[in-house]
Amino acid sequence: QVLVKHHQDGKGGILLSELSECISQAENILESLGSKVLVLPTEKNNKAIFWNDPTPSCYSNSDLKSLWREVSLDHLDEEKIAIHSFYSGIAPMNVPSQKKNMDEPSTSRATRRNTTARVQNDHLDDVLEEY
């Protein structure tokens, strides 16, 4: 019921660690549900659990499906498709570019430490000579 409610609210999946806090023996219950849930591994040995809703959230008619399968764009490249869609009245989707290239290392300078001048021993002033 927790997974179904979470799915109906549009919140997506639940981590297994969070589910085990709510429900005792969560792993046994998940095994009994079988194909009704989707279990995806995540980072740090955790699992995300989604409710596998058998009913589709959107429908399409058979005419659209047949038209979609008839169209072949193998002979067109990206530029020709963009020109054709512009003349058809379809605006291309603009993807915002990244402002900073994350692959390059940062160019910030290292801070200089204040180095103190080397203190000479006072009792050796008459022996030491500067060259």
TrEMBL record:
Basic and acidic residues composition-biased segments: 120-131
Biased composition range(s): Low complexity: 107-118
Pfam families, per the entry: TFA2_Winged_2 (PF18121)
GO biological process, one term: transcription initiation at RNA polymerase II promoter
Boundaries of every TFA2 Winged helix domain copy: 3-52
InterPro entries listed in its UniProt record: TFA2_Winged_2 (IPR040501), TFIIE-bsu (IPR016656)
Region (Disordered) location: 93-131
Superkingdom to which the source organism belongs: Eukaryota
Any Gene Ontology CC annotation: transcription factor TFIIE complex
Family matches, as PANTHER family: TRANSCRIPTION INITIATION FACTOR IIE SUBUNIT BETA, TRANSCRIPTION INITIATION FACTOR IIE, BETA SUBUNIT
Protein name, as recorded: TFA2 Winged helix domain-containing protein
Organism of this sequence: Pristionchus entomophagus
